[in-house]
Design goal:
- Helix content is 15%, strand content 25%.
- The strands form 4 sheets. The chain has a 3-stranded antiparallel beta sheet, covered by helices on one side. Strands 3-9 form a two-stranded parallel ribbon.
- The protein is globular.
- It is of the alpha+beta class.
Length: 122
């Protein structure tokens, strides 16, 4: 992700302001922050449920911002997301749930591989 910007309307506030980061192969990446920080907007831009205002998103060698509908369907099969509001464990955050297993999806199937290195965005 490079210099990603997003807003929900042309005259609305800018929600994402120049976000850039890289995730290497076999990394497990978590986005953690306070309510209203733009975490969900960032994820929705990466899978294009929200169209970014500007910036570049490269996922598995594909420029996400230029994919057509068919390409987006394929991309979304390769991306897994867990939204905390869907109650991993009642009244606990994702950081308090060490027993939750996160698996990598490969071609629509769970690989069962260990997530490996964890990167946390400030």
């Amino acid at each position: 992700v490079s210099d990603l910007h997003a807003r929900y309307s042309a005259k609305g506030p800018e929600i994402l302001k120049g976000i850039s980061f890289e995730v290497e192969d076999n990394d497990f990446f978590a986005i953690i922050g306070p309510s209203g920080a733009g975490k969900s907007t960032l994820i929705r831009c990466i899978n294009r449920l929200v169209e970014p205002t500007s910036g570049t998103i490269i996922f598995d060698g594909r420029d996400v911002t230029k994919l057509n509908r068919r390409g987006l369907r394929g991309l979304r099969r390769d991306i897994g997301m867990i939204f905390q509001e869907f109650n991993l464990i009642n009244r606990m955050s994702v950081m308090c749930c060490p027993g939750v297993l996160v698996t990598h999806r490969i071609g629509g199937h769970c690989s069962g591989r260990s997530p490996g290195k964890i990167s946390i965005m400030p």
